[in-house]
Amino acid sequence: MNKRNLLFAPLGAAALLLTTPANAMTPPASSTSDASVQLTGWLHVDDLEMSDVTILVAVNGAMRTAHVSSNGRFDIDLPAESAATLRFEKPGHVTKEVTVDTRNVQDGSFNGQRRRHVKLAVIMEQERFMAGLTYAGPVGSIGFDQGGGCVAVAHTRTMVPVKRRATMEF
Length: 170
Prior knowledge:
Blueprint: E1 7-8, E2 11-12, E3 17-18, E4 36-44, E5 54-59, E6 62-66, E7 73-79, E8 83-89, E9 96-101, E10 115-123, E11 133-135, E12 140-144, E13 151-155, E14 159-161
Parallel strand pairs: 4-10, 9-12
Antiparallel strand pairs: 1-13, 2-3, 4-7, 5-6, 5-8, 8-9, 11-14, 12-13
């Protein structure tokens, strides 16, 4: 992660909001493989319809989907020492991706905690309001500082024109 682009929680961004837990009384982990990060998020869409939302979770090369409740809440558990990409899709909306790196999750004063809990919010924008633009890459990244274990967040709203398929003439 680029240290210059990192922001530390709490972060008051409308597109990505993250906080860390106040509870520090978790039983010690027996090993790093037992440790995990629980992401709890809320998805916002203008029409409030969540039945056609898809969250794809790519973790260490494996792909799975996450359930989204009717109010937009989702829960994702990630193992420590993993890299993940969360891809949020809804027809008629601009797709968003968030990367999560759980290395260093047990560093510093967090050593021994079995589970860390991170909360976030994702707002999906309708394509018709985006003037033919899409995001250039992931809109955010979540990680943990080396040595300290604090949540480290970076976000961007860099936009690029949507690539359109050209009509081929013969």
